[in-house]
Known about the structure:
This protein is of the alpha/beta class. It has 6 helices and 5 strands. Strand 1, helix 1 (12-24) and strand 2 form a beta-alpha-beta unit.
Amino acid sequence: MQIAIGSDHAGFELKNDVIVYLLEKGYELQDMGPDSADSVDYPDFAHKVANAVATQENTLGILICGSGNGVCITANKHQGVRAALCWEPELGSLARQHNNANVLCLPARFIPQEKAFAIVDAYLEASFEGGRHENRVNKIEQF
Length: 143
């Protein structure tokens, strides 16, 4: 499983922490930027991650900004992307299990590093349950 990860300036430090954490666990990552904590526009990096997931260049994505909202809204504009804003580990699990989310969005200004790691773990360790959720997920996209 290869994971695309990106952030804005507010999520830059947490993004780097998550990268180290996941590399130590053996995940393959593609860092989509930014490369510094200088002010940037979150859509630029959310589009990169969402494109990588939508084209299946990467299996999953992780996006991080101050509130998590901006990157989540942006990523969800891409066909085939189901981005979920999660601030608790249970939400990370449910995003995969019930919504088949393929992009996890984290609010860097509202969660400590340890909680971010727990959310990431819960998200990555879960899988889509299908069943009654399959029909619902299939109704999400509009063409």
